[in-house]
């Protein structure tokens, strides 16, 4: 099953509660937290996440593009996140952090920038509930999808299958009607979509259409047949 997680980075920040309700058919609501240090942009923090949690029944998928996630990630679980993603490039102790996130009741996820290979982290995969492959450089919404990430998605799916893990594989960056099928064929099953959803006339319909395309593409893929 394909999961569609609209990114509120592409929403109207002055109307976050309304924008969250506009996509209540989505599986998760993707929330990008940026600190202007790990990435060159600044977004929202713990108080806004707490408010957003009260404004929607859709579970929150937090993506922490921040320095020192070891310190901050647990606070986002306490703020109401159902899933917290930290970056491999920023975490000092990723296994310990993943276990702490899980112990607090959320799904633990790790993200990799485009230039970061998956292979050095193979032994960490059992500690995670999801792995995020960035298909753009993190920091800004609306970037063009990087096709060169498709082999990395395939290699990651192969590792997940080899170890027999029930690990979600998420992609984030430039996911749209034009790219989601390629991502699904390569092995992704969780899709972050920003402007493809919030730039549509009917965001809820955009979510449904993206899910349908992803599931159709995955159905014919070898990895899904073996899954």
From TrEMBL:
<dbReference type="InterPro" id="IPR026019">
    <property type="entry name" value="Ribul_P_3_epim"/>
</dbReference>
<feature type="active site" description="Proton donor">
    <location>
        <position position="172"/>
    </location>
</feature>
<feature type="binding site">
    <location>
        <position position="172"/>
    </location>
    <ligand>
        <name>a divalent metal cation</name>
    </ligand>
</feature>
<comment type="function">
    <text>Catalyzes the reversible epimerization of D-ribulose 5-phosphate to D-xylulose 5-phosphate.</text>
</comment>
<dbReference type="InterPro" id="IPR013785">
    <property type="entry name" value="Aldolase_TIM"/>
</dbReference>
<feature type="binding site">
    <location>
        <position position="30"/>
    </location>
    <ligand>
        <name>a divalent metal cation</name>
    </ligand>
</feature>
<feature type="binding site">
    <location>
        <begin position="139"/>
        <end position="142"/>
    </location>
    <ligand>
        <name>substrate</name>
    </ligand>
</feature>
<dbReference type="Pfam" id="PF00834">
    <property type="entry name" value="Ribul_P_3_epim"/>
</dbReference>
<keyword id="KW-0119">Carbohydrate metabolism</keyword>
<dbReference type="GO" id="GO:0004750">
    <property type="term" value="F:D-ribulose-phosphate 3-epimerase activity"/>
</dbReference>
<feature type="binding site">
    <location>
        <position position="63"/>
    </location>
    <ligand>
        <name>a divalent metal cation</name>
    </ligand>
</feature>
<dbReference type="InterPro" id="IPR011060">
    <property type="entry name" value="RibuloseP-bd_barrel"/>
</dbReference>
<comment type="pathway">
    <text>Carbohydrate degradation.</text>
</comment>
<feature type="active site" description="Proton acceptor">
    <location>
        <position position="32"/>
    </location>
</feature>
<feature type="binding site">
    <location>
        <begin position="172"/>
        <end position="174"/>
    </location>
    <ligand>
        <name>substrate</name>
    </ligand>
</feature>
<keyword id="KW-0479">Metal-binding</keyword>
<feature type="binding site">
    <location>
        <position position="63"/>
    </location>
    <ligand>
        <name>substrate</name>
    </ligand>
</feature>
<feature type="binding site">
    <location>
        <begin position="194"/>
        <end position="195"/>
    </location>
    <ligand>
        <name>substrate</name>
    </ligand>
</feature>
<keyword id="KW-0413">Isomerase</keyword>
<protein>
    <recommendedName>
        <fullName>Ribulose-phosphate 3-epimerase</fullName>
        <ecNumber>5.1.3.1</ecNumber>
    </recommendedName>
</protein>
<dbReference type="InterPro" id="IPR000056">
    <property type="entry name" value="Ribul_P_3_epim-like"/>
</dbReference>
<feature type="binding site">
    <location>
        <position position="32"/>
    </location>
    <ligand>
        <name>a divalent metal cation</name>
    </ligand>
</feature>
<comment type="similarity">
    <text>Belongs to the ribulose-phosphate 3-epimerase family.</text>
</comment>
<feature type="binding site">
    <location>
        <position position="7"/>
    </location>
    <ligand>
        <name>substrate</name>
    </ligand>
</feature>
